[in-house]
Design a protein that fits this description.
Layout (H helix, E strand, L loop, with lengths): L7 H19 L6 H6 L1 H30 L6 H10 L5 H19 L6 H10 L2 H16 L16
Helix pairs in contact: 1-3, 3-4, 3-5, 3-6, 3-7, 4-5
Length: 159
């Protein structure tokens, strides 16, 4: 693959989806465990939104690798490793993103092993990791405006 220009539209659309999924999770009864489990729809919403949020982040990561560096990525864990190798993510962020890749795989392929209590715990304790990865990608994009067809501006918001 030959490096080329990142597409702002792709990044904006995926980050907007990420934000939407985070908001939907935050609207669930996360402050009250009994209320969360009282309505089964909360579990299903949390699972779907979490998986979609992770997919959106990995789409951004794969887009950066493909367009900025000409690197196709075969797996989500590989995406995390390559982003850290290229200093898109720092070492700790790369490690967190690799863990997120593992969880995305659990949600997708081992969904039958993911229990409601685990989903609740992840939503309560780890939801901030999604926003942290978003910020990390935006940080790199802002530092590399020459790699995107329409650079992000301060008006686009800072996290």
């Amino acid at each position: 693959m030959t490096p080329s220009t990142l597409y702002r539209r792709v990044i904006d659309e995926r980050l907007a989806l990420l934000d939407q999924m985070i908001r939907q999770i935050e609207q669930l009864s996360l402050h009250d465990e009994d209320a969360f489990f009282a309505d089964n729809r909360n579990v299903h919403t949390a699972e779907s939104c979490l998986r979609r949020a992770l997919e959106a982040l990995f789409d951004v990561g794969r887009h950066i690798l493909a367009k900025a560096f000409g690197i196709p990525s075969a797996s989500y864990r590989e995406t995390a490793a390559r982003l850290a190798e290229r200093d898109v993510l720092d070492k700790d962020e790369g490690k967190t993103f690799a863990q997120m890749a593992g969880y995305r795989d659990r949600l997708t392929h081992l969904y039958h092993e993911v229990c409601p209590a685990e989903l609740y715990q992840v939503c309560v304790e780890d939801l901030g990791d999604l926003a942290s990865m978003r910020s990390a990608f935006q940080r790199w994009i802002r530092a590399n405006p020459h790699r995107i067809d329409h650079p992000l501006t301060d008006a686009d918001g800072q996290d």
